[in-house]
């Protein structure tokens, strides 16, 4: 055996002797920006490739999206075949905005999933009250990581947007917190969403009573705190959050990718890496 062969063999044996270490769980929240808006040069057909490229660059394991139309979801997995997505729209169909959840098929297994609406009848599709002017909902899933069989819940949501809706948003986050409290103990929970309000308000206080805001707790942060920029690249409000319980965020980044002055959405996506 040559010296080079011995070195190569030693390297292989050393690698085999090392305990396997699972990679971080990479979680993204991404408000897609609906394809029905009058966005001119920022229309979906002009940014769908950049949208997919942004995801490819960050390579998240799972993505909670908001404002997603079925065509946008299908366009994205066509460009990123390692992903698939699921979810009903806010009317319980596939004709309007979805809280679509994407995940990497080589990384995660979907164990079960469901949804509920922010209303006094949360199991009734498209139900709304409390002052909501359109149905608002949560899409959720229990995932199992293929590398080590660890499980976690992912919940994705989009709260009302008007300034006068803070009381409604607070009721929504209370229902969200109640749902999470009923999940099996010992299984981590991660929440992604466009909450349409900034930290410090009552709805943020309600949900962070039981969940940690990754932007506030992760030891490593990159990018601006603010996420909504209206296609200008100059964000003004931090309304896109990643929250968790039972799992630790190691780092978080607001992603400001653009190309030729165009952005993939009117929100910056946010990605957190968790030590599952």
How would you describe the overall organization of this protein?
- The protein is α+β, with helices and mostly antiparallel strands.
- It has a single domain, classed as Deoxyribonuclease I, Chain A, CATH 3.60.10.
- Helices cover 24% and strands 28% of the residues.
- The protein is built from 6 helices and 13 strands.
- The strands form 2 sheets. Strands 3-4-2-1-13-12-10 form a 7-stranded mixed β-sheet.
- Strand 6 and strand 7 form a beta hairpin.
- Helix 2 (44-58) crosses helix 3 (70-79).
- The N and C termini lie far apart (43 Å).
- Residues 10-20 have low confidence and may be disordered.
Quickly list its features.
single chain, 276 residues, alpha+beta, Deoxyribonuclease I, Chain A, six-stranded mixed sheet, 24% helix
Distance between the termini: 43 Å
Order of helices and strands: HEHEHEEEEEHEHEHEEEE
Task: Report helical residue fraction.
Answer: 10-25%
What is Rg? Answer: 20 Å
Total E-strand runs = 13
Keywords: Endonuclease, Exonuclease, Hydrolase, Nuclease, Signal
GO molecular function: 3'-5'-RNA exonuclease activity; endonuclease activity
Signal peptide: 1-22
Pfam family, one: Exo_endo_phos
Task: List strands and helices in order, with pairings.
Layout: H1 3-17, E1 25-31, H2 44-58, E2 62-66, H3 70-79, E3 83-86, E4 101-104, E5 108-117, E6 137-145, E7 151-158, H4 166-181, E8 189-194, H5 202-207, E9 212-213, H6 214-217, E10 220-222, E11 240-245, E12 248-254, E13 270-275
Parallel strand pairs: 1-2, 7-8, 10-12
Antiparallel strand pairs: 1-13, 2-4, 3-4, 5-6, 6-7, 8-11, 9-11, 12-13
């Amino acid at each position: 055996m040559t010296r080079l062969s011995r070195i190569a063999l030693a390297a292989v044996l050393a690698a085999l002797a090392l305990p396997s270490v699972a990679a971080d769980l990479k979680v993204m929240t991404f408000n897609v920006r609906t394809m029905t808006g009058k966005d001119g040069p920022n229309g979906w057909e002009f940014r769908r490739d950049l949208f997919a490229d942004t995801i490819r660059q960050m390579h998240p394991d799972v993505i909670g999206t908001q404002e997603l139309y079925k065509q946008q979801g299908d366009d994205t997995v066509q460009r990123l075949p390692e992903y698939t997505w699921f979810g009903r729209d806010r009317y319980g169909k596939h004709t309007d905005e979805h809280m679509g959840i994407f995940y990497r098929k080589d990384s995660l297994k979907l164990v079960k999933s469901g949804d509920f609406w922010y209303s006094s009848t949360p199991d009734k599709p498209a139900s709304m009250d409390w002052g909501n002017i359109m149905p608002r909902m949560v899409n959720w899933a229990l995932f199992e990581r293929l590398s080590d069989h660890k499980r976690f819940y992912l919940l994705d949501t989009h709260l009302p947007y008007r300034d006068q809706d803070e009381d409604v948003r607070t009721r929504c986050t209370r229902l969200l917190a109640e749902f999470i409290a009923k999940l099996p103990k010992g299984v981590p929970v991660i929440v992604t969403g466009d909450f349409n309000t900034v930290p410090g308000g009552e709805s943020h206080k309600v949900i962070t009573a039981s969940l940690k805001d990754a932007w506030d707790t992760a030891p490593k942060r990159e990018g601006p705190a603010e996420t909504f920029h209206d296609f200008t690249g100059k964000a003004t409000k931090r309304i896109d959050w990643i929250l968790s319980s039972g799992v630790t965020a190691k780092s978080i980044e607001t992603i400001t990718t653009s190309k030729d002055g165009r952005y993939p959405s009117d929100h910056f996506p946010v990605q957190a890496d968790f030590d599952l």
